[in-house]
Design goal:
Oligomer: single chain
Structural class: mainly alpha
Number of strands: 0
Shape: rod-shaped
Radius of gyration: 14 Å
Largest sheet: none
Helix content: over 70%
Length: 33
């Protein structure tokens, strides 16, 4: 159970990082125009 929770939170952190990266990339694209 604990391992499953850790894996889930790790995956969530990874997803949050990816979302943040995409958001920053979009922000740069918008600022370029």
């Amino acid at each position: 159970m604990i391992e499953q929770t850790n894996t889930t939170s790790d995956a969530t952190a990874e997803t949050a990082r990816d979302v943040d990266r995409v958001a920053q990339a979009l922000k740069q694209e918008i600022e370029r125009f």
